[in-house]
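Researcher: Let's do a round of design. I'm pasting the structure tokens now; please hold your answer until I've finished.
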């Protein structure tokens, strides 16, 4: 039986099937003050300086950003990140990425195989689709950050 692909959190990123090049995180933008929110905000603008009267419109976030910070996770994360307590635990790499256009930092796991030793503050990364977990019926999808190829140690394009 084939597994059904399901996002871990609905409407936080583009749904499958999407070619990897078109994968994006989804936020919302207030039409009154232009503030962008991720995770998305669907009820009211969280900007205390907003004049009000605007609507919250869904917007795709920038597909690339620069590493603001990173670390390794050496513990089993809490829900909604499900893991089999009987399976051997593998540390993961957690990345905080600054999206300049949106003026925000977004947290997420690095793509499989990317270790802290592979990263540097200021390095350009891109958002890509990822798999968080699989069970008998579902493949639970999420997003990952992966270094953009052609990076130098200073995070500049070569």
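Researcher: That's everything. Go ahead.
Model: Designed sequence:
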């Amino acid at each position: 039986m084939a597994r059904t692909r399901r996002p871990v959190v609905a409407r936080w990123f583009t749904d499958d099937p999407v070619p990897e090049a078109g994968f994006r995180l989804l936020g919302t933008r207030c039409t009154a003050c232009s503030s962008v929110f991720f995770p998305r905000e669907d009820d009211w603008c969280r900007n205390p300086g907003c004049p009000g009267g605007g609507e919250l419109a869904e917007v795709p976030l920038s597909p690339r950003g620069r590493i603001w910070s990173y670390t390794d996770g050496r513990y089993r994360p809490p829900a909604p990140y499900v893991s089999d307590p009987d399976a051997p635990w593998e540390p993961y790499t957690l990345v905080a990425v600054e999206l300049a256009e949106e003026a925000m930092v977004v947290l997420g796991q690095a793509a499989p195989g990317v270790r802290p030793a592979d990263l540097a503050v200021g390095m350009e990364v891109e958002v890509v689709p990822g798999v968080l977990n699989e069970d008998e019926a579902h493949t639970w999808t999420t997003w990952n950050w992966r270094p953009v190829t052609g990076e130098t140690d200073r995070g500049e394009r070569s």
